[in-house]
Amino acid sequence: MPIGVPKVPFILPGDDEASWIDLYNRLFQERLLFLGQEVNSEISNQLVGLMVYLSLEDKKKDLYMFINSPGGEVISGMAIFDTMQFVEAEVQTVCVGLAASMGSLLLVGGEITKRLAFPHARVMIHQPATSLYEGQAEDCMLEANELLKMRKTMTNIYAQRTGKPSWQIHKDMERDLFLSAEEAQAHGIIDTVADSL
User: Fold this and answer.
1) Looking at the structure, do residues 22 and 81 belong to the same domain, yes or no?
2) Is residue 126 annotated as a catalytic residue, yes or no?
3) Which tens digits make up the pLDDT trace of 115-170?
């Protein structure tokens, strides 16, 4: 039997009694954001809105994005990435579980020196992909050209944010490259591996 989203007590300013709100809304108030699914336009719009709102609310307090994602839509992911760079509040990224594909690009997009992975987390990078395209040959070629542009953009982002040369990133992205937390740190995708207790 599903339990739904847990509720937690929260005292609103000026109230004497606590109100019950869902767990994620409470965590959002503490500037903790979660990407725990495949990246799509819905979660992208939610995270973009939260980052902008929380940054406007207090641009000096860091935002924390917890990532456990198999990746997803490139354009939706780039919207999140661009917003992370745009907002004045610094965005710390934390890999819990898996940051694969677009999830790893968002992980590397956190504030440099503030990118972290838990000890048993996994990171995977690869080239962007498309589903099999059914349509006119010319449309297929246009999509292939767009995919090549996105790959170049993503290669440049990884190279800039990891300090690795573009040719190395290009080579690493040829196939799925799975990394442990320590390997991701050595690769420059994260800065720190969280201490295990």
Assistant:
1) no
2) yes
3) 999 999 999 999 887 665 666 777 778 888 888 999 999 999 999 999 999 999 99
> Is 107 found in the same domain as 14?
no
Of the candidates 44, 101, 104, 187, the residue annotated as catalytic is: 101
Specify if 154 maps to a domain: no
What pTM, to 2 d.p., does this model score?
Answer: 0.90
Catalytic residue, candidates 55, 76, 104, 126: 126
Q: Encode pLDDT of 13-22 as tens digits.
A: 788 888 888 8
Range of the structural domain that residue 184 is part of: 31-127+175-193
First to last CA, the chain: 32
**β-bridge partners, 93:** 65, 115
> In this structure, are residues 32 and 62 in contact, taking their beta carbons and an 8 Å threshold?
no
129-151 residues labelled b (16+ CB within 10 A) or e (exposed): eeeeeeeeeeeeeeeeeebeebb
Kind and range of the H or E element at 33?
strand 32-35
- CATH number, domain with residue 49: 3.90.226.10
Do 76 and 19 reside in the same domain of the chain? no
- Residue 166 is a catalytic residue: no
